[in-house]
Specification:
alpha+beta, Aminopeptidase, 7-stranded mixed sheet, 10 strands, globular
Length: 225
């Protein structure tokens, strides 16, 4: 019986150069959950992303590793910017920055409900783990500022030509969209050709993201990594 929640305190720490082999998502009959347990050390997180998984768990659970089928992805060239957003961007309503305040972005994301489910999935362990990944150069954020105050933003993990979007938040309407659009354009210019959005949301669908079979996602992921 599991006697801990969140990361397993007895599980070995994997540093940035170590890798852990997860169960193969393509051999699982589960449409999302692939494994549970372990911790959020850098090597574990990078191993998960490389193998098509990501952590997502609730208050009373250990770390649960997911690989949804279907997967929700965005190809940068398919980014759709509405006329209203083009106007907002053209008028420079928000000042957009990259990696200026990663910790504020992830903490902002932690304060709102995600994926329409009752999961407080960005807990302190997650915050600490991704701040560490940021310091190591793998996790990145985009911030939207209004009158000097953080109005919204988004963050995720980059590995080679793939960006794994994790979360976004907005205190002011359209702030997260402005940050994401800026980030996608920046990533495309920097060689990223696939953005993992994990699971379908109306917000990301309106920006051009689409569903993809898990098998095809894993194949594409291996190709681009």
């Amino acid at each position: 019986m599991v006697k801990f929640t969140g990361p397993d305190p007895s599980f070995p720490y994997y540093d940035v150069n170590q890798r852990f082999i997860f169960p193969d998502p393509l051999e699982s009959e589960n449409e999302s959950m692939i494994a549970w347990g372990g911790n959020l050390s850098p090597g574990m997180l990078l191993s998960a992303y490389e193998q098509g998984l990501f952590p997502w768990y609730g208050d009373d659970n250990p770390v649960i590793w997911h690989s949804p089928n279907p997967r929700f992805v965005l190809f940068p060239e398919n980014l759709h910017v509405s006329s209203s957003m083009k106007k907002i961007i053209k008028n420079n309503k928000f000042v957009i920055t990259l990696n200026k305040d990663f910790s504020a972005v992830i903490k902002g994301c932690a304060e709102i409900n995600r994926r329409d489910q009752d999961l407080t999935w960005i807990d302190n362990n997650m915050i600490d783990a991704y701040i560490e990944l940021h310091k190591l150069g793998y996790a990145h954020s985009a911030e939207a500022w209004l009158n000097g105050e953080l109005a919204g933003g988004c963050y995720g993990v980059r590995l080679s030509g793939v960006f794994f979007g994790e979360s976004m938040f907005a205190k002011i309407s359209n702030a997260s969209k402005a940050a994401l659009i800026f980030l996608v354009n920046h990533l495309q210019k920097d060689g990223v050709s696939l953005i993992d959005c994990q699971v379908k949301t109306p917000h990301l669908y309106s920006l051009g993201a689409r569903e993809m079979d898990r098998k095809e996602f894993i194949r594409l992921l291996k190709e681009k990594l």
